[in-house]
Write a structure and sequence with these properties.
60% of the residues lie in helices and 14% in strands. It is an alpha+beta fold and 180 residues long. The protein starts with a helix and ends with a helix.
Length: 180
């Protein structure tokens, strides 16, 4: 049975997280993963290149040597395991899942706010405070996205909760009520 990307990402990230906690290297591993994430964001096709069967083994080994070079210990071993199991194209998902576990461990909920216009820093902080309070966390961190189709308002997503306060959602709800 083939596993979907979400399941794979969660399994790998959970194993890495638990090992990091056990070895008391959680902060170090998290910092290294942030650097690894930057590399994969700067070279979006890297995971596919290292997984693709069309690239010959010598080329992949050369790429892997360069990729592994700045990392050590648990993170280097993790990269090798992910490579050996041909899951490099899922690495960003694994890192994101690890970061969710990391934040959860520290009492921080991680979420996303989608608005029509960019939020000011003050607006973002107010949303983070309210979200942390609403979900029972010490702190909240949100990333901001822009979606002009919302017309107005915002959508807040965190910890499997979605609060849709967009004008678009309200109009759709009114349309549905009027049609029935």
């Amino acid at each position: 049975m083939k596993l979907d990307k979400d399941t794979v990402g969660k399994r790998y990230s959970k194993a890495l997280f638990e090992l990091s906690v056990e070895k008391k290297q959680l902060e170090e591993v998290n910092e290294q993963l942030k650097e690894l994430k930057k590399i994969f964001e700067e070279i979006p096709d890297l995971g596919h290149m290292l997984t693709d069967v069309r690239l010959n083994l010598d080329e992949k080994k050369l790429l892997m040597q360069q990729l592994e070079k700045p990392f050590e210990g648990i993170v280097r071993q993790f990269i090798r395991v992910v490579y050996d199991y041909a899951r490099m194209d899922d690495l960003l998902l694994m890192i994101e899942d690890f970061q969710h576990l990391y934040y959860e461990h520290h009492g921080v909920v991680y979420g996303k706010v989608t608005t029509v216009v960019p939020l000011t820093e003050n607006q973002k902080k107010k949303i983070e405070m309210k979200l942390a309070q609403l979900l029972g966390y010490k702190e909240a961190k949100v990333s901001c996205m822009i979606d002009e189709s919302l017309i107005g308002g915002m959508i807040v997503e965190a910890n499997h909760h979605v609060i849709d306060g967009s004008v678009k959602a309200k109009l759709n709800k009114m349309r549905s009520v009027l049609q029935n």
